[in-house]
Amino acid sequence: MSSTSVPSRRRRVGGARRAEVLDVVVDVLSERGYEHTRFTDVAKVAGVAVSTLQFYFGSRDDMLVEALHHSTEREVARLEQAGNQEPTPWPRLVALVDGGLAPLPIGTWRMLMEFWHAAVHDPELRAHSVSLQERYRRPFAEAIRDGVEQGEFHVADDVEDVVTALVALLDGLVIPRVLDHEYFDADRLRVVVLRQLRALLGVADP
Amino acid sequence: MSSTSVPSRRRRVGGARRAEVLDVVVDVLSERGYEHTRFTDVAKVAGVAVSTLQFYFGSRDDMLVEALHHSTEREVARLEQAGNQEPTPWPRLVALVDGGLAPLPIGTWRMLMEFWHAAVHDPELRAHSVSLQERYRRPFAEAIRDGVEQGEFHVADDVEDVVTALVALLDGLVIPRVLDHEYFDADRLRVVVLRQLRALLGVADP
Amino acid sequence: MSSTSVPSRRRRVGGARRAEVLDVVVDVLSERGYEHTRFTDVAKVAGVAVSTLQFYFGSRDDMLVEALHHSTEREVARLEQAGNQEPTPWPRLVALVDGGLAPLPIGTWRMLMEFWHAAVHDPELRAHSVSLQERYRRPFAEAIRDGVEQGEFHVADDVEDVVTALVALLDGLVIPRVLDHEYFDADRLRVVVLRQLRALLGVADP
Amino acid sequence: MSSTSVPSRRRRVGGARRAEVLDVVVDVLSERGYEHTRFTDVAKVAGVAVSTLQFYFGSRDDMLVEALHHSTEREVARLEQAGNQEPTPWPRLVALVDGGLAPLPIGTWRMLMEFWHAAVHDPELRAHSVSLQERYRRPFAEAIRDGVEQGEFHVADDVEDVVTALVALLDGLVIPRVLDHEYFDADRLRVVVLRQLRALLGVADP
DNA sequence: TATGAATGAGCCTTCATTCAT
DNA sequence: GATGAATGAAGGCTCATTCAT
After folding, report:
1. pLDDT tens digit string along A133-185?
2. B190 is in which domain, residue-wise?
3. Cα–Cα distances in angstroms (integers) from residue C43 to residues A185, C114, C178, in the given order
4. CATH assignment at residue C188
5. HTH tetR-type domain location, by residue (chains A, B, C, D) (predicted)?
6. What is the pTM of this model?
7. Residue B87 located in a structural domain
8. Which nucleotide is nearest to D18 (CA to C1')?
């Protein structure tokens, strides 16, 4: 649905390079973290002057927030995409789980964490996190509801709560991954998560 | 178990107030976040001079890291404590889950998030996160292993992976809680989590 | 009399809008003050691009100085005009005083103050202030000299000093007016100033 | 009266040097003007670090405003002082006029102009200018009222208006003085001003 | 003629840190 | 043990200016 990105306040300045530079911002941000991303850092990597960044984005905060929006937007879109490939409920759910466990560049997951953290301390980002989470949950919820309606799934609890738990599980797995904890193994976890999910949905083991 | 706190070389100066002030640091830190906690902020709340803080803790980073250690230490201890109250595996697991879902002051959970985030960008903290996570996982792992040995639980996957998933689920639930997302409801989630857990462990529904 | 305005080397580029824009510069300048008038401010009000202003006027200083010249020029012309309407000395003086106390838009008076202030710190403007002041004083001096020659006025001091005092009085009244001090009342002041003037010139009260 | 200077908001920091430095600020300010007085300029002259100035005064604006207050305060006090030396009305008025025409360091007069100019664009300073002007006018008004009561002066207009005119005259003379206009001669002007004043007050020529 | 893109210089401000008391 | 004075380093921001179109 409406992937029509950010209705940002500025964004009527800058030439073609602006878009490229924004991607650089995302990279640097995921690398250094919100609070440690200086104009200088981005400027150096992007090969533009600091004042050019300000010309493009306004303030440092505006720049970082736009990068945060941009990248989270992209992730949600990626997930929605993943879900749309499969027509039937269970394979669709599996695809969604795989989307949440995919071996993407580590920066992707760090960015997520940056977003959560930044949102804790910034009301505007927190508000965005609400709408973002809604969109993030929707594909899961729809797949489960479809499965229930088609008699394929049998859920004892409220679907929303199941989604909350499922998403929390995927989000929670981001943490050991980003912190590079040894015990984390995406492939083995995938098995566990899916087994757990089958149990919750009353789907027979394969 | 060795609660050998703070393995650091940090000094041990300052009078009795030092301990009180450290608690203030924790509060301010959970409130403002690592990067936004200035000496001034703490000084104001604690009612001491900035130079006093430096006298107590050394540098700003030393102060914050000590606060991070202090509070995470406390949380792990709390969990170990919770597990020790119950003698049999399943009630012990339930107690541990309840420990992870407890309606503690929101600052407790924010602190956890601060820790994760800070650890991403600080090697020393990352190292600490490894040992901390080990201790955090242990009570869960032990309870499950006990249950398996006693024939009470039947686990299809590696126990460590089950623990990873379980802890990830609890950690992942910290996020909507801290971000104050509406759909989050600890009580209902508790039911879902426990049902999920029973399914994984082959424990009959109550 | 030579109204040889703007003795500057400043360029003469730009279309018909240039003149209109110059008036905008005057307005903005009187509103915001010399030091706080940015290209951006003028551009916004004039509805043109910043680079257009630079195209018209050159540098920021050039623009502002030209505006200062333009507006002071206009004021002096207004005064000369006022003096020329009346043929006999005393009515002419009265007209000049009225010109100095006229209820013009407040911007007019603020501009005067801007000019004084700017001239203090800019040698070129200071030089201009000298020639400007000369022309400003002249109508007063001529009227008084005429009155003396015609035996209508009797002056004990040097006429130039009388003019200095008279102009200082009018200029000094600009200050409470611009600062919007309550005690300032142009009508009542007019009576006082004229009485004072009659006393100095030995003119009988009406 | 109540020369109990500024009830400033900060001012509880800084050692003994603070007072000395404040005088430096006044000097630099009168020399360079409000808008062109940088921290750097003051720091260089005062021989302290920029951050020391900020430690003393807070922001650049706070520093300059305090300097403005400080110096205008001093001037008003000087005038009140001058008036208090003479017991009888006319000599007292003469002393006040002399105070307004005194050959003080040019910085004193430039400062006055800075103050007027700054007050035009800063509401807080404008408010201060009101109270300051009140105190500035008072000695003049009291001397005149005393003279009237003692039958020494005979005033046709409202005393306040006479004061307005007199102060305006003195203020207006600051302009050519600061702009260093050639025709300005304090001694000769003094004669004119006093003659004018005598005429207004019905005092016989000496 | 008129303008948007891009940039560099200059300055304020924040903040941790050092030092003397 | 505890604190105030003083400072240097670093970064964000404003703004005029240059350049290509």
Report:
1. 999 999 999 999 999 999 999 998 999 999 999 999 999 999 999 999 999 99
2. 67-201
3. 60, 20, 26
4. 1.10.357.10
5. 15-75
6. 0.89
7. yes
8. F5
